[in-house]
Design brief:
This is AAA+ ATPase domain-containing protein. Belongs to the AAA ATPase family. By secondary structure, the chain is of the alpha/beta class. It is built from 17 helices and 8 strands. A 6-stranded mixed β-sheet has the order 1-3-4-7-2-8, sandwiched between helices. A two-stranded antiparallel ribbon has the order 5-6. The longest helix has 22 residues. Bound molecules: adenosine-5'-diphosphate (ADP). Adenosine-5'-diphosphate (ADP) binds next to helix 6 and helix 14.
């Protein structure tokens, strides 16, 4: 699954589908008169069993949290499986280094990160859409062996509206109980924007307040070294992503001690990504053609490049028309440079030059270097 992770297209429902881990595993009832042969296709996975035990223990110990909300978090928000590793992400070396220092090492070696080395409680990843922010968050969770809670802020203010406050409380309580934890909030701007202060949406304002309060509690608990069994506030980090960093209000922005710019890919990064995408595809592209492709994709994001490659890979099949149905696989021609040229006519970069400038300006003003 390692290399696959790098080539799957952005699919917002994917997370949802991959969440698993039923928190309560119904015990297989044994019928009277002898055990029945196992009917269920899933044999108990010892790893999941261990996880379930841990979850049940955690849920038992936390108080003041709505049980339905807690279950909802465990079923829909906790991500398990289909791991992303650093190597799956092309380039972004600076961001990887920064994330290792801010999250991964402190989570793995909490004994070394105390006092002045106290880890950050919040980190913001900002930049154009489709540049790998979500992938980075997933890789951080894998590499730091953390429980990964992934929620999009816009779903808090729409899909879950009404139960959002309960959900936010349950989210933070569970993150602390199941630490080390990463709370990944995508589209954080829709939760922490200045717009929410103007009373436009009373309900969203309340969720914002609840989120900020629970986040502060985390910092206080961590500073107070309240490290009880089943509550490890020091190893919980809010990692957020946004394509609209300027929409976040000032007070909220300051809480993200680190603000990491995730830029459009550099030529070397685009080359690496293109090579990865072509690795499992029959193609006859020369080194020179790949280099030309790298030049032609200047201004493209990682997800734009994935889209181009997927479209180009369809080229040989499109050329066949209806004959596709009867052509043996080994007679289908390889993907060629002309396929990419054709795809590039239809798929254009999703970020404009002006749009990009806005990110660079914001990065200069508010981004953290290093
Ligand atoms: P973001 O969260 O920044 O909007 P994602 O992390 O969701 O972007 O990336 C969307 C898709 O684009 C990924 O699933 C992947 O296919 C591709 N992609 C983006 N950046 C990279 C990268 N640096 N390396 C490999 N694939 C990438």
């Amino acid at each position: 699954a390692r290399s696959k992770a790098a080539v799957v297209a952005h699919d917002p429902d994917r997370r949802q589908r991959q969440t698993l881990v039923p928190a309560t595993s119904s015990s297989n009832a044994t019928a009277p008169g002898g055990p029945l042969p196992p009917l269920l296709p899933h044999t108990p996975n010892p790893e999941h069993q261990a996880w379930n035990n841990r979850v049940n223990e955690a849920v038992k110990n936390i108080t003041g949290v709505d049980e339905t909300a807690a279950r909802q978090i465990l079923n829909e928000i906790v991500v398990k499986g289909d791991e992303v590793h650093w190597d799956d992400i092309a380039g972004l070396e600076q961001a990887k280094t920064s994330l290792k220092e801010t999250v991964v090492y402190p989570f793995l070696r909490p004994d070394l990160f105390k006092g002045l080395r106290e880890p950050a409680r919040g980190m913001l990843l900002f930049g154009p859409p489709g540049t790998g922010k979500t992938m980075l968050a997933r890789a951080v969770a894998t590499e730091s062996q953390s429980t990964f809670f992934a929620i999009s802020a816009s779903s808090l203010t729409s899909k879950y509206l009404g139960e959002s406050e309960k959900l936010v409380r349950a989210l933070f309580a569970l993150a602390r109980a199941l630490a080390p934890s990463i709370i990944f909030v995508d589209e954080i701007d829709s939760l922490l924007s200045t717009r929410n202060d103007t009373g436009e949406h009373e309900a969203s304002r309340r969720i914002k307040t609840e989120f900020l309060v629970k986040w502060s509690d985390l910092a206080h608990a961590a500073a107070g070294k309240e490290h009880k069994d089943g509550d490890d506030a020091q190893r919980v980090l809010v990692l957020a992503a946004t394509n609209l960093p300027w929409a976040i209000d000032e007070a909220a922005r300051r809480r993200f001690v680190r603000r990491q710019y995730i830029p459009l890919p550099e030529p070397e990064t685009r080359k690496k990504q293109i090579e990865t995408l072509l690795k499992y595809q029959v193609h006859d592209m020369s080194e020179g053609e790949i280099d030309t492709l790298v030049e032609l994709t200047d201004g493209f994001s990682g997800s734009d490049i994935t889209a181009v490659a997927k479209d180009a890979a369809m080229g040989p099949l499109r050329a066949l028309g209806e004959a596709l149905l009867s052509t043996p696989r080994d007679q289908i021609r390889p993907v060629k440079f002309i396929d990419f040229e054709a795809s590039l006519k239809n798929i254009r970069p999703s970020v404009s030059k002006e749009g990009l400038q806005a990110f660079e300006d914001w990065a200069l003003k508010y981004g953290s270097s290093g």
